[in-house]
Amino acid sequence: MKIIIYLNDVDEQQGPFEYVPSSFTSGLNFYRLYYKIHNKGINDETLNKIVPKSAWKSCTGAAGTVIFVDTQRLLHHGTARTEERSTLFFVYTANPPKRPGLCTQYWDDTYPKPELSKQFN
Q1: Which residues pair with 87 in a beta bridge?
Q2: Rounded to 5 degrees, what are φ and ψ at 34?
Q3: CA 66, CA 68: separation in Å to the nearest integer?
């Protein structure tokens, strides 16, 4: 689960969070999408051939907008931005998560943690 908080107004220029509704990523599309994602990655042009861009949802909003999203269930990404944005991201995972390989940076010691004593000196 991710919680995204926009600290300034976010429109298309600031690169809003985007997702494809799950109704477009089930059945045959599921296999077409995830095969491409896991083998080579997927860009907007390739995604548009499978799911029309008109179906994608863009989450624009004023400063203070809060977005709750289950990133395990939705195909999601941020869009390219031409202006800066400030955003807070909070991530929550189960312990243990259903797919631990996707969550290791959040709940185990795979990545080094900053030393608190050095941060506050």
Answers
A1: 6
A2: -75, -25
A3: 7
